Structure formats: C-alpha cells, structure tokens
Amino acid sequence: ATTITLKRTGDKMPLVGFGLWKVQRSECADIVYKALKAGYRLLDGAGDYGNEIEAGEGLARAIKEGIVKREDVFITSKLWNTFHEKQRAKDIARHQLELWGIDYFDLYLIHFPISLEYVEPSAKYPPEWWGLDGAPHPTKVPIQETWTAMEELADEGIAKNIGVSNFQGSILIDLFRYARIEPQVLQVELHPYLTQESLVALSKTLGIAVTAYSSLGPQSWLELGMHTKTPGLLTHETVTSIAKTHSRSSAQILLRWAVQQGLAVIPKSSNDDRLKQNLQVTDFSLSEEETKALSALNVNYRLNDPQAIHPALGIFA
Ligand code: A2P
C-alpha cells in the first residue's frame, strides 16, 4: 500500500509525504514544485514554518504546468500555539488557506497541546518567550475549546480531516472523551531512537493514523553538539549494515522501517537526489529480524519534547 485510509472520511493519505519544516522561504516554492514533479502527493506544512505563501506558489506552478491537480495533493497544515482560542483558531485557519492560495486543507492539526498568549501572526516568537524579557505568558485555553474550533473547521469544509500533533497518550484519551469528531491523524516524532510503541498501539486501538516526523533521527541536536555520545541514526552501524544488504541508503532504511509498520513519513530534503530517493521506500521490504534490530535501538531519545515548549519552562527549555 502507498496510502493510509482515514477512518472517518475514507480519504487516502499518502504514506510518504514531503515535510516543509526547516525549508527556507527563499527555496520553498522551487522545492515544493520539484517535490510534486518527483511524485510527492502530500505536503506537510504549518503556520509555524513560515513558508506557506511560498509553498502555495510552488503548488500553483505545478498545477499550472499540469503536473498535478489540487485534488491529487494531500495538503496538511497546523494550528500554532498562539491561536488556540476558538475564534482565533477558526480565523487563522482561513488565513493560512489564503496564504496557500487554496480553499481547503486535506488535514489540519493542532501543532502542540499547549496554548500560548496571542501575538500578531507576524510575531510568532516575541523576545519574552526566549527569556530575554521575563517569563512568557500562557493562556488558559483548554484543548477542548480548541478542538471545538477544529470540529467546526471540519463542518465548514475548511479542513477535510482534523487531528493533533505532539500529543501524548493520556491527553489523546481525554480528547476522545469529548470529541464530536474524532481526530483522524496523530503526528509525532518517531524513529528507531524513539519508537513510541505504546502510543502507536493506542492510536491503532483508537483508529487514528500515525505520521512520524524526524524519521531520519534527531539530527539538528547533534549538529548543535549536544548528546554527542549518541551517534546519528544515519551512521549507526545497525542502519548502515542493513542498508548495505539492500543496496539502499540509510535514510531509505529508516523510512522503510516506519512505512512497513503502517506509519506515514514526511522527510524534508533540499537536495534533488535525496528528495527523489526518499520517495523510493515502498518497493522493498525489511525482514522481521531487521525490523526488530532497528526497533531495539530505542532509547526514548527525542529532538522535540512537547513539554519543553511549555511557558513555565521557557520555550525549548
Ligand atoms: P537535506 O535537506 O540537506 O537533504 P527532517 O527529519 O526534519 O525531515 O529533516 C531531514 C534532514 O535529513 C535534513 O537535514 C535533510 O537535509 C536530511 N536528509 C533528507 N534526506 C536525506 C537522505 N536521503 N540522506 C541523508 N540525509 C537526508
């Protein structure tokens, strides 16, 4: 299979998508265009990534040239933490659609289960969040209020499917207690250093599709020189030896490991060859032994700790 069927709508979500996190604005339109031309049919964006206008430009170019139709592409975006109040959530989702130049999202996610004080959309990270000017201010918006906004966005056809990101199990279970429209997708960090087995099992039970992000491992922290005792996943011997067996790259092995478990992946690449290579992961299989060896690398080691974004700690404390 190359898609996952979402439970409520029956919509098909591609297993391999293109992630827009860390794609620079200056290169975003070109990269989105190239990704669509290479065959990607899912674009994973977010208000937080700051490149939605450019992503929309790349999409428009591909549509104009007849490479894709709007309905062929599964477009995901996310609600940033400063827009959790009901009306603000509804307004910003519409605004994000305008930035993209489209009239619906295939999927809209709550980016983090944490609400932060409203700031103008252009000032996502005011200096005080970084501890330069006192503590940041949380708002008192419960997830339930935000979820009501998400449900109304689904009712209105603004978002065909709705879901959540960076939610852990207990808050997900709580959401199911009151959801009129159940979340269709959970997007979380997931790779062999952070296998999230119980969260994946819970999602299966609840009928939610899981999208893994940072599938190639927690690279940027390593680039920053932290956790230097943990080798990058791409160069881990277990990964490179399996790659050799299959004559594939380490990245393809890591992506295949996720896809083979029924998890969607959204790797980002600014490089033409890597962008193409990351799409070629549905035409080979890992043995049970190889899958087990990769899963055994788990050390619960994460790049993005949702709790670390809480204002009480300071952002990314
Ligand atoms: P680059 O854009 O230079 O290819 P994320 O996990 O957030 O999707 O980020 C993926 C990271 O891994 C990026 O830094 C990207 O850099 C790099 N990358 C993407 N594809 C590959 C690949 N096939 N092999 C090695 N590195 C890759």
From TrEMBL:
The record marks 78 as: Lowers pKa of active site Tyr. InterPro entries: AKR, Aldo/ket_reductase_CS, NAD(P)_OxRdtase_dom_sf, NADP_OxRdtase_dom. Residues 17-298 form the NADP-dependent oxidoreductase domain. One of its GO terms (molecular function) is oxidoreductase activity. Keywords: Oxidoreductase. The active site is at 49 (proton donor). The keyword Oxidoreductase applies. Substrate binds at residue 111. It comes from the Eukaryota. Belongs to the aldo/keto reductase family. This is NADP-dependent oxidoreductase domain-containing protein.
